[in-house]
Design goal:
By secondary structure, the chain is mainly alpha-helical. It has 7 helices and no strands. It folds into 2 domains: 64 residues; 58 residues, no CATH class. Helix content is 64%, strand content 0%.
C-alpha cells in the first residue's frame, strides 16, 4: 500500500487508497482480480507506472488467497512477515554456526511451526495492521 500511495498526488490519495483496499480486502482471489481490473481502468491514465508495477506484483500480492482464510488478515500486512524474520534472527544469531543444513532446517521448522499454532488460535494484535 505504501508503494502505491507514495506515487499518488495528495488530492487523489484517499480515493486511490480506497480503491486499492478493495483489491486486497476482497472475499476471494477472483473478486480481487476483478477489483484490480477496475483499479487499472480508473488509474492507468493518471498513474501508468504505478498501475504497471501493481500489475507486475499482483500474483505475489494476492498469493495469500491460496492459504486458509483464517490467516488472510495476518498475511495482508508485512509486519507479521517482518516479525518472523526478527524471530529467526533472534533464535539463530546466538548459535553462530550450525553443524549442517538439517540443523538449520530443524530450528526454522520449530520457529514457523510455533507461529502457525499461534496464528491458528489467536490474532497477534501487536503484529497486524487494521485492514
Amino acid at each position: 500500500m505504501r508503494n502505491i500511495l507514495e506515487k499518488v498526488r495528495k488530492r487523489d490519495y484517499d480515493e486511490v487508497k480506497q480503491d486499492a483496499q478493495r483489491i486486497y480486502l476482497a472475499h476471494g482471489r477472483r473478486q480481487a482480480e476483478a477489483e484490480f481490473r477496475r483499479f487499472r481502468k480508473r488509474r492507468r491514465e493518471a498513474y501508468p507506472a504505478m498501475v504497471r508495477q501493481l500489475e507486475r506484483d499482483l500474483p505475489e500480492l494476492l498469493s495469500f488467497f491460496s492459504l486458509p482464510r483464517h490467516l488472510w488478515r495476518k498475511l495482508r500486512t508485512t509486519n507479521i512477515i517482518e516479525r518472523c524474520f526478527v524471530e529467526v534472527r533472534r533464535r539463530t544469531r546466538p548459535m553462530v554456526c550450525f553443524v549442517n543444513v538439517a540443523s538449520v532446517d530443524r530450528i526454522l521448522y520449530s520457529i514457523f511451526h510455533r507461529f502457525n499454532l499461534e496464528w491458528k488460535s489467536r490474532t497477534l494484535r501487536l503484529f497486524t495492521q487494521a485492514a
